[in-house]
Amino acid sequence: MAAQYEKLHLFIDGEWLGLDGRKSQPVLNPATGEEIGRLPHAKTADLDRALAAAARGFTQWKRVSANDRSKVLRRAAELIRERHERIATVMTLEEGKTIGESKLEVLSSAEVFEWMAEEGRRSYGRLIPARGEGHRQLVVKEPVGPVAAFSPWNFPAVTPARKIAAALAAGCSCIIKPAEETPATALLIAKALEEAGLPKGVLNVVFGVPSEVSSYLIASPVIRKISFTGSTAVGKLLAKLAADGVKRATMELGGHAPVVIFEDVDPEKVAPLAVAAKFRNAGQVCISPTRFFVHEAVHDRFVAKFTELSAAMPVGDGLDPKHKMGPLANARRIDAMETLIGDAKARGAKVKTGGSRIGNAGNFWQPTVLTEVPEEATMMTVEPFGPVAAMVRFKSFDEVVERANRLPYGLAGYAFTGSTKTATAISEQLETGLVGVNTFAVTVPETPFGGVKESGYGSEGGSEGLEAYLQTKFVSQM
Questions:
Q1: Could you give the CA distance from residue 375 to residue 381 in angstroms, rounded to a whole number?
Q2: Contacts 24+ apart (CB under 8 A), 62-71
Q3: HSE (CB half, 13 Å, CA atoms) of 42?
Q4: Of residues 50, 15, 69, 78, the one with CA closest to residue 197
Q5: Using CA atoms in the order 297, 313, 152, 167, what is the torsion angle rounded to 10 degrees?
Q6: What are phi and psi of 228, to 5 degrees?
Q7: Which CATH topology does 257-444 take?
Q8: Which superfamily does 2-253+455-477 belong to?
Q9: Active-site residue among 252, 383, 454, 460?
Q10: Residue 181: HSE in the Cβ half-sphere, 13 Å Cα cutoff
Q11: Residue ranges of the chain assigned to CATH 3.40.309.10
C-alpha cells in the first residue's frame, strides 16, 4: 500500500520541502494500520517563510485580472479531473472512505474550482448616484489579504478546495494547513495549481502540531482572514485568536443533524435514502444525519427497513469497490463509538444491529442502529461522528421541533413529508444553516454552506463563499 502513496512535503514559496532537518509523524492507512508515509512538520523558520511568501504573493496576485485568475483556476480544475482516479486512490489510502466516494469527492473539488473561477469574474462593485454634479461615489470589492486556512481529515479534497478556490478567486494568497492524518490529497491539489500557472508564494501548504501552527499563523500581522472547518471546541479557540487581531473568520463547526420523518411518507422508500446518507464516509460527515425523529405511526416500519439495509451493508477496505463502507479514519473514532454506544445501552437504548468493532486490524466498525435512545444519553448531545444512527419516536409537530432544536448546534437538518404545508413549516422552524426537505443533498459548489448557533458563522460555497474573502471600499471622488 505504501508504494501507492505519495511522498509527502511542505509546499512553501513554490518549493517542495521534505523531511531534512524537520520533525515528522507517520501517516497510517486506517484499513490496515500500516504506515504509508512520513509527514514533515514545519519549523518556525518554515512558517515565517510561508508568511513572507504569502505577503509577496498577495501583492502580485491581487494585481492579476479576475479573468486571468479564472484561467489558472479552470486549468487546475482540468488537471484535477484528469487525475481524479489517482487522487481518489491516495485519499482512500489515507482517510479510508470507499473509492467510489473518493472519486466523487475529487470530481466535486474540480467543480468547486471551476465555479469559483467563474464567480471570481463577477465580484461586482457599484456606482451610487451622487448628490452633486462632478461627484462620483463608488463601492469597490477588494481581496481581504493573505488567508490562513485549516481543514479537517474527513473530506481531504473538497474542504481544502472550497477554501483555496474562494481565496484565489477573490485575489487573496493562502496558507493552508490540511489535516496531518490526510495530507497527500491536499498536496496533489496544490500540485495541480502549481502546474496550472499559479505564481509561487500565492499558495503555501504547511503541517505540524495543529495548535502551534494555527496560533503562530493567526497571530501574524500578515494574515487578514482565517477559515476553519472542524470541531466547535477548536473553532472557539481559533475565533478568540482571530478576535485578538480583529481578523475576519469563517467558522464551519460541528453539527448533530436531526432528521424528522413525518407520518405521511412511505417509510420503506425513505429508509434507503437515509441509510446511504447516514453511512457515507462511515458517518464521519459534519452534516451526517444522526438523530432520527420518526413519527410513531411509521416508526416501526422505518426502523425495520433501515436496520435490514444497515445489517446488509458490506464493510471493508475502501479500495475494494464491493465495499459500501470503509473503516473509521483513526483509532480515536473507535474509542468514541465504544464510549457513546456503551453509554446509550447503559441508559436503556436497544441495539437493533451492529454495535461492535469488526476484527482487530484496521478501524472497522459495524453499521449500528439504536432504538429507544433517551435524551439524556450522551449520544443525543454529542456529535457521534461515526456509523451509528439513533432512532426515537415523536407524536406531534411542536414536540419534534422542540427536540430537534434543543442542542446548541445548528449545521444541517432534514425532514421528510408529503405535505407542502408541513414542508414549509418545518423548513422555517429548524434552527440550522442547511435544511433538506425530502432530500439529504444540501451542498453543491454554487450554494452556501454554513451553520448557525455553535455550528459556526459565515459560509463557504456560493457567492457568499467568495464574498467572505472580499472587503468593501467606498470611494468618494470630486
A1: 8
A2: 62/142, 62/143, 62/171, 62/172, 64/171, 64/199, 66/120, 66/121, 66/123, 66/169, 66/171, 67/121, 69/117, 69/120, 69/168, 69/169, 69/171, 70/117, 70/118, 70/120, 70/121, 70/169, 71/117, 71/197
A3: 30
A4: 69
A5: -80
A6: -130, 135
A7: Aldehyde Dehydrogenase; Chain A, domain 2 (3.40.309)
A8: Aldehyde Dehydrogenase; Chain A, domain 1 (3.40.605.10)
A9: 252
A10: 16
A11: 257-444
Per the CB < 8 A criterion, the answer to whether 336 and 385 are in contact is yes
In the chain, where does the domain assigned CATH 3.40.605.10 lie?
2-253+455-477
Query: 286 an active-site residue?
Result: yes
The dihedral over CA atoms of 288, 291, 295, 297, expressed in degrees to the nearest 10, equals 90
Q: What is the rounded CA–CA span in Å between residue 129 and residue 357? A: 67
β 147-150/289-295 pair status: unpaired
Per-residue pLDDT of the chain (478 residues; tens, 9 = 90+): 677 899 999 999 999 999 999 999 999 999 999 999 999 999 999 999 999 999 999 999 999 999 999 999 999 999 999 999 999 999 999 999 999 999 999 999 999 999 999 999 999 999 999 999 999 999 999 999 999 999 999 999 999 999 999 999 999 999 999 999 999 999 999 999 999 999 999 999 999 999 999 999 999 999 999 999 999 999 999 999 999 999 999 999 999 999 999 999 999 999 999 999 999 999 999 999 999 999 999 999 999 999 999 999 999 999 999 999 999 999 999 999 999 999 999 999 999 999 999 998 999 999 999 999 999 999 999 999 999 999 999 999 999 999 999 999 999 999 999 999 999 999 999 999 999 999 999 999 999 999 999 999 999 999 999 999 999 999 999 9
* Cell numbers at 375, concatenated: 435524551
DSSP 147-172: EEEE--SSSTTHHHHHHHHHHHHHT-
Spatial contact of 366 and 341, defined as CB atoms under 8 Å apart: no
Q: Is 383 a catalytic residue?
A: no
Q: pTM for this structure?
A: 0.97
Alpha helix (H) residue ranges in 356-411: 397-404
- Reading the block at residue 417, the C-alpha cell is 413529508
Amino acid (one-letter) located at 64:
V
From the list 111, 114, 286, 431, the catalytic residue is 286
Residue 30 contacts residue 282 (beta carbons within 8 Å) = no
Cα separation, 173 vs 377, in Å, equals: 45
Q: Quote the cell numbers at residue 215.
A: 496560533
Answer for the pair 40, 8: CB distance below 8 angstroms, yes or no. Answer: yes
The residue type found at 197 is G
